[in-house]
Design a protein that fits this description.
Keywords: Signal. The protein is mainly α. It has seven helices and three strands; from the N terminus they run H-H-E-E-E-H-H-H-H-H. Helix 2 packs across helix 3, helix 3 crosses helix 4 and helix 4 packs antiparallel against helix 5. It is globular. The N and C termini lie far apart (46 Å).
Length: 222
């Protein structure tokens, strides 16, 4: 019931009048991520807007998050996107919703960092060893944010769908293993800290669970 009601709210927030204006693929993605989005808005109280692009542009990723004027902007670029589900090609159809839910949770991790004013910032007490500058610093900072967001996704899966944790974690490892060793999305430093859901402190909110492991990973992220 919550998921169906929240989907209606998503339609309004995206500026679409009815589900008839959404494609089947867009509806499937929004339904898969509805619980995460409800949590983000109602529990975390994040300033989150959702946009469904009427037509994907060249090089658009299917799901992305930005930040503008104090609000997170979650953008779905599925319509007319030939690469909309490339990351899911190896996933059985019955399991794709689990991966999409994890992807949405990943983006909410980004939103939380933005909203807290922590984007590209280290926790108190951390110092760079060694310091970096220019493009190297930008790459490192982005990789760290991706590591945090991946941990939020895994913490969410463990809290809400623990029976699927191993499957989602294995898929995420496969996705990240394909990234260049020094790439902005090479997050294995953090993924290795959560081989099972037992790595998370489940009596804490999801973002705090992720933060604890993220701090551990920073110690090894030179």
């Amino acid at each position: 019931m919550i998921k169906r009601a929240f989907l209606s709210l998503l339609l309004l927030s995206s500026g679409l009048a009815s589900a008839a204006e959404l494609t089947e693929l867009e509806i499937r993605w929004l339904k898969a991520g509805a619980d995460v989005l409800h949590y983000a808005k109602q529990v975390l109280q994040l300033p989150l807007d959702i946009t469904v692009q009427p037509q994907a542009r060249a090089n658009d990723v299917p799901l992305a998050l930005g930040y503008d004027q104090g609000r997170c902007k979650l953008v779905l670029s599925l319509r007319g996107n030939p690469h909309a589900e490339d990351l899911l090609d190896s996933v059985p159809a019955a399991q794709r919703g689990w991966m999409i839910e994890a992807m949405v949770a990943h983006e909410i991790g980004h939103c939380w960092r933005y909203a807290q004013g922590h984007w590209h910032a280290l926790p108190a007490g951390f110092a760079e060893r060694p310091p970096a500058a220019g493009a190297a610093a930008d790459l490192r900072d982005t990789r760290r944010e991706e590591g945090f967001a991946d941990l939020v996704a895994l913490a969410w899966v463990h809290q809400r769908q623990p029976q699927h944790y191993a499957t989602v974690a294995a898929w995420l490892h496969t996705v990240r293993f394909g990234a260049p060793a020094v790439g902005s999305h090479s997050t294995l430093t953090w993924l290795r800290l959560a081989p099972t859901g037992a790595a998370f402190t489940t009596d804490l909110p999801v973002v705090e669970q992720a933060t604890l492991l993220w701090r551990q990973g920073l110690l090894n992220d030179e």
